[in-house]
UniProtKB/TrEMBL annotation:
The NID domain, residue ranges: 161-249, 260-348
InterPro entries linked: Nmi/IFP35_dom (IPR009909), Nucleotide-bd_a/b_plait_sf (IPR012677)
Protein name: N-myc-interactor
Residue ranges of the region described as Disordered: 1-24
Superkingdom of origin organism: Eukaryota
Native source species: Gekko japonicus
CDD domains: RRM_NMI
The organism's taxonomic lineage, starting at the top: Eukaryota, Metazoa, Chordata, Craniata, Vertebrata
């Protein structure tokens, strides 16, 4: 009920409470609005950052793609250059291999042409003359020289024969006629006479100088004493005259090779020592056996090379295969070319080959080579 003043009891309080609650909600609403605005601003900032990062990522991916393309292109260029260089190197290696093979073949050919035999066959030695001693070196050494030459090989094939005449004129006349009819096994056979073209030949003069004052000593025991003491012991041993020794002028000793070079004061002593081949070497503890050898100096002079054609020897070719053995065919050929009526003459040598190949050797004779 309204009171005397016309107010409804409790209404004012309610209105005051409602106002207070409304104010409270307004504050909450303003706060919410503010938070919403802040969230929108944060979202806008986040969106801007995300856009920037996406743009940056896009740029980075573009750079990565560009780098990948450039890297791939560089690898392809590098591989092409590498393949080209490898091809060039392979061609150069092959060229060098071919060049080396050609050089080796040439060296082998030259080695065959200029090859010398080390061994010299035994021959009689004849005294020729005396020489006046002009200096001490001549007196201290035995000097000699040998004229040498290498036999020249010639390959003889099947159906061929070599024939050598005593007279050069006979061979040259038969060579000019070229074709000759020879009766073999009651059948006429036409053979050809050709010159014998030899390979390279050589002549040389071997000089040998043997010292009469120096000797080589080998197989010297490895003594545990200084080198100077070893030299003293060598000098003492080889100065004894019981086994042909004499006054020692100098001793050169090499421990690694176990060898020494001993020089005597007088010539002729070396000859007396060398003939023993082995010599006792006495030390304070025991006796050893050392090996003695002469000091020899060898060198070549007047080394000459030549090629030519023998003037008295012919090569007969186109000889047909016969049932007769080689010796009979050989005799028939020799008989034919011995007859003056066939333009022949005295045969000094003949060799016929019916099968395979054989090598004939020509001795060096400048007078009989064209």
């Amino acid at each position: 009920m309204p009171n005397a003043e016309g107010e409804v009891p409790g209404t004012q309080e309610d209105e005051t409470g409602n106002v207070t609650e409304l104010e409270q909600w307004k504050k909450e609403l303003a706060k919410a609005e503010k938070e919403k605005a802040d969230l929108l601003l944060s979202k806008l900032a986040a969106d801007e950052d995300r856009r920037k990062w996406e743009e940056e990522l896009k740029n980075l991916r573009g750079i990565e793609d560009t780098l990948a393309k450039e890297r791939k292109l560089a690898q392809e260029n590098y591989q092409r250059n590498l393949n080209r260089q490898n091809d060039e190197l392979r061609r150069e290696i092959q060229f060098l291999k071919n060049k080396l093979a050609a050089k080796k073949a040439k060296c082998k050919e030259l080695a065959q042409i200029y090859k010398l035999k080390r061994s010299i066959s035994e021959t009689n030695v004849t005294f020729t003359h005396l020489e006046k001693v002009e200096n001490e070196e001549t007196y201290n050494n035995i000097c000699c020289f040998f004229d040498g030459s290498a036999n020249i090989p010639f390959r003889l094939s099947r159906g061929e024969a070599l024939i050598t005449f005593e007279e050069e004129s006979v061979a040259q006349e038969l060579l000019q006629k070229s074709q000759h009819t020879v009766k073999l096994e009651n059948a006429d056979t036409v053979v050809r006479a050709r010159p014998v073209e030899l390979e390279m030949g050589i002549t040389f003069q071997l000089h040998v100088k043997i010292s009469q004052r120096k000797i080589n000593v080998s197989n010297i025991p490895n003594l545990r004493i200084p080198d100077e003491w070893v030299r003293d012991k060598l000098e003492l041993n080889f100065s004894k005259t019981k086994r042909g020794g004499g006054e020692v002028q100098d001793v050169t000793y090499d421990r690694r090779s176990q060898m020494a070079l001993i020089t005597f004061a007088q010539p002729g002593v070396a000859n007396n020592i060398v003939k023993w081949a082995e010599y006792p070497f006495h030390t304070s503890e025991q006796t050893y056996i050392v090996t003695i050898s002469p000091v020899v100096e060898k060198y070549l002079e007047r080394f000459e090379m030549f090629s030519g054609i023998p003037k008295r020897t012919l090569l007969l070719t186109d000889i047909e295969d016969m049932a007769e053995d080689e010796e009979n065919i050989q005799d028939m050929i020799a008989i034919h070319f011995q007859k003056p009526s066939n333009g022949g003459g005295e045969v000094e040598y003949i060799r016929y080959i019916s099968e395979g190949t054989k090598v004939a050797y020509f001795e060096t004779d400048m007078e009989n080579v064209i």
